[in-house]
Sequence to fold (385 residues):
Amino acid sequence: MSTPSDLPDTVLELRSTLTDDGVVTLALHESEMPSVGDDQVLIRVEAAPINPSDLGMLFGMGDIAKAAPAGTGGHPAVSVPVTAAAAAAQAGRLGKPMPVGNEGGGTVVAAGASPQAQALLGRTVGFLSGNAYGQYRVVHPSQCLAMAEGTDPADAAAAFVNPLTALGMVETMRAEGHTALIHTVGASNLGLMLNRICLDDGVALVNIVRKPEHVELLKGQGAQHVVDSSADSFIDDLTDALRATGATIAFDAIGGGDLASTLLSRMEKVAGEQAGEFSRYGSDTHKQVYIYGGLDRSPTTLRRDFGMSWGLGGWLLTPFLVKAGQEKADRLRQRVAAEITTTFASSYGTRLSLTEAVDPDLVRRYGRMATGDKALVTPNANANA
Fold:
């Protein structure tokens, strides 16, 4: 094994613990430097994004608006209250300090003896681990995506969740026989990636945003169909965009409320116009909405004014990759690595050290998941950059 001599004996990491009193605490923990096996690599973690999918593990679906300081053995911590129902749904994690952070980027500073591990020594990599919010991480080479020489680890940090999700949406659209798609958070980092993919691949895309300035942002990046859900003309604008694109599949990060129902209804309206004759069962065109996020935790409501040829389901990246198979997954990963600073570039509104990640004021900020204000954790930094 190749191991540098200047590694620290202990490392800091974030751990999230849900207790049976209805409180989840996110705290700094100190542990021994992990050892590296023959088929493993050690990464000095320079950056790790806070994705919406990370918040559930970080704060156990608690009320982030009520974040408060909490002391744990000399290390800073923050706590938030969790409802009894949310705590019951997570009974399997009660009392267990859980590692957090789906993905990150850094430099491989030690490697086991296997050829796959040695090939990554000294390389900048993105990695997928589930415990990225720590100074050093040991992972299998298959969990890494090697970047071109000179790539900033901060660029590599978001190489998995958003890029592969955006690519997976387009692949799912094609596999299920649709020709255009709808995305409900068009101005997010993921949405901007998806827009660039669709422009490059010649796929018609309807972007839904929530503010007029987001319309301008996307149109400035070449998007043709952008509709503002806050506008009085939203329903008409959406319908016009569906007529122009023929989109019959949507990916919804909102989840709650009646947006999924509205999408199905408007898709049916356009399909009915093209059907040529009335059917009490609606059009024969299959309309599909996949919910892949939960920015709105309220119930999903359906009005059932969209005929009988429709589907509403969940969509997650990992099951998609399993179904896609290794060859396709590798092809998608290599595209991400090749285009990490262009198609798959991410932007951040704040950078946080591990200590700052448990500051209640900053927790309330990054917990809002506001468009344009995504947080990047920098585990080996001492101060906000």
